Amino acid sequence: MLKSARKQSSASKQSKDPEGRMPLVEHLRELRNRMVKSLLAVLPLMVLALFFAKDIIEFVTDPVPQCTSELEAAAQEGRCAVLSQVGLTSPFTTFIKVSLITALVGAAPVWLYQMWAFLAPGLHNKEKKYALSTVAFGTPLFLTGAYLAYWVLPHAVPVLLSFSIDGSTNYITADDMIDISVKLTLAFGLAFQLPLILTLLNLGGVLSGRRMLSWWRGMVLGISIFAALVTPTDPLSMLVLALPIIGLYFAATAFALFNDRRKAKADPDTDLDDDEASDIDLTPSTIGGVSEVEGDDGRHGNANGTDRHRGGLDDAT
């Protein structure tokens, strides 16, 4: 029985569709297996992160200028805050949240690979190449944005606290700092994906370099407004986010213009609309002489099928 079962499993593996096609039930079963493998990678890291959760929380809350008491906060006129945790279960939930986020980040190579392994069989070779290129360029761009967010946060917190009312005391919880750190990191990291998205649209023929260049005023204004909304009111933080994205936008535009010029040289009709006729070459060309062919009976005739021995008449005449 075991041998027959092994033979059937090996036969099913050998009969797998090379293009990745399978029934819906098989797709759901594979999705379940991929999710289980990802979960098995996250859970051990989450348990391990629980032992270092306190250190991670201290690292996240380090940008907060802390006051030792309410009297010191009042004397500092709101330039520092009292770090607090409200509620009986708040320390425990904070530990769980920090451990889960740390585990998701640490296990990212595993669950990203499982996601790729699930999607890759349904992609063509060209689509796979684009997907791998996206990951190769998107990862360092995201990490660059995350690093800028880490640099901006210590400068942003004092600026936000400077708006406090005189004589008031600010209470900042660890959950607040974790939330703002995650949001700022995601905002910076995803914002740095803009040039990559524009480049992919150009490679796919959806967006031309000329159109991207014509948008530069609106893009500069939009990026500046986005940076002002995402970052605190500190002008330095806004410039730290806006200037690199604007530079990357113009770099993507330059790449798109170069790519369009390269495609135009390879295909002169690439810029034509779907309902626009291309130029037809009407230059006359010379036709070579008539070649002789040998019939089934061994007699020679010309390419038009007439027999020179029969005066150019075919069998029908």
TrEMBL record:
Biased composition (Basic and acidic residues): 14-23, 296-317
Protein name as annotated: Sec-independent protein translocase protein TatC
Keywords assigned: Cell membrane, Membrane, Protein transport, Translocation, Transmembrane, Transmembrane helix, Transport
Single GO BP term: intracellular protein transmembrane transport
Keyword Cytoplasm: no
GO cellular component, one term: TAT protein transport complex
Name of the gene encoding the protein in the UniProt record: tatC
Stated role: Part of the twin-arginine translocation (Tat) system that transports large folded proteins containing a characteristic twin-arginine motif in their signal peptide across membranes. Together with TatB, TatC is part of a receptor directly interacting with Tat signal peptides.
The keyword Transport appears for this protein: yes
UniProt xrefs under Pfam families: TatC
Membrane topology: Multi-pass membrane protein
